[in-house]
Amino acid sequence: KLDPRSMSVKTKKTASDAEQISRLRASQSPIAISLTRCPTWTSLDPLQFKGYWDNNATGILLNNGSTAYFTFDTSARPTLSGGPLLGEYIFEQMHFHWSVDDFTGCEHVLDGHGYAAECHFVHYNSKYESLEAAVGHPDGLAVVGFLLEAVFAPNPRFDMLVEGLEHIKKNESVFHLTSESLAWIARDDLHEGSYVTYKGSLTTPPYTECVTWIIYEKPIWIGFEQLGLLRQLEGPNSQPIERNVRPTQRHPPGHSVIYVK
Ligand code: SG7
Ligand code: ZN
To answer: Rounded to the nearest whole angstrom, what is the distance from the C-alpha of residue 5 to the centroid of ligand 2?
Structure first.
């Protein structure tokens, strides 16, 4: 006799974890997250950061008047895949958010803890032609965020980027760097730690809901002097950019945030 349950198992296509995440409801970002209230998933594939370090790749560090960001000026195309993501996402740029103090410079808030800064690695889905095209789709972007905790000792991981910051104090200035300044993301075991993932939005206008967010639980430390260089960057009015953080947004009803261990 046929067991109806076994039939349904055979005939119904079961969604992979990544497929389930791709269908989650979007929301505005950033958000405050309570880790203990998130469902925990332990069986996702590891996230894979590829091609971040290439001897010949160079990039630029730019002050666009609201943040400092690094992007490649060669054809280097690091990629991100695995974890909650379906398919491959192409690295576009990495930027920072900060504030005047050491506790309100992060955008995402985990278990009520505020940090000095947050850095975002922005990637777009390789099935779209460009970042601009990808922004129009719910599965368009994948942004990896690290919370940055202020400490006395400078973090060697940020040495190259920070050296560049000294040269881009003025709005719309540019400094050339090599891809080595981002190599730490692939070299470190940082990304073997746990993270939270949810469907959200850009944290700056036009706040489009096109982002799969991946926020690592463990903060990275950054030296007070290194932070000071971020805080010296000037906006269009030639005054230091004091704060480029969007406040946390409400979770819509039924919104899911998943804790991946
Ligand atoms: C920063 O954050 C910039 C924007 C970025 C925005 O203002 O890094 O990028 C540029 C080139 O100005 O916008 C589409 C995009 O990446 C929002 O990014 S975020 O949601 O990851 N914070
Ligand atoms: Zn950002």
So the answer is: 46
Residue 9 has pLDDT above 90, yes or no: no
Q: Report the b/e string of 214-233 with b at 16+ CB within 10 A.
A: bbbbebbbbbeebbebbbeb
**Alpha carbons 130 and 121: distance in angstroms, whole number:** 16
> CB–CB of 213/197 below 8 Å?
yes
List all residues 6 or more positions away from 64 whose beta carbon is below 8 Å from its beta carbon.
Answer: 171, 172
Instruction: Report which protein residue has its CA nearest ligand 1's atom 16.
Output: 122
Query: Which residues, judged by CB distance below 6 Å to any ligand atom, belong to the binding site of ligand 1?
Result: 64, 66-67, 69, 93, 95, 120, 122, 143, 202-204
Q: β-strand 89-98 against 79-82: which pairing, if any?
A: antiparallel
Query: HSE (CB half, 13 Å, CA atoms) of 215?
Result: 28
Q: How far is the CA of 260 from the centre of ligand 1 (A)?
A: 25
**DSSP characters over 165-212:** HTT--STT-EEEEEGGGGTHHHHSSGGGS-EEEEEE--SSTT--S-EE
Q: Which atom of ligand 1 is nearest to the CA of 145?
A: 21
Q: What is the mean pLDDT of residues 58-82?
A: 95
Instruction: State what percent of residues in the chain have pLDDT above 70.
Output: 95
SS3 assignment, position 227: helix
For residue 187, how many other CB atoms are within 10 A of its CB? 13
Decide: 233 and 63 in contact? Cβ < 8 Å: yes
**DSSP label of 60:** E
Task: Please report the atom of ligand 1 found closest to the CA of residue 69.
Answer: 8
Query: Is this complex scored with an ipTM above 0.90?
Result: yes
| Closest residue CA from atom 20 of ligand 1 | 202
Atom of ligand 1 nearest to the CA of 29: 20
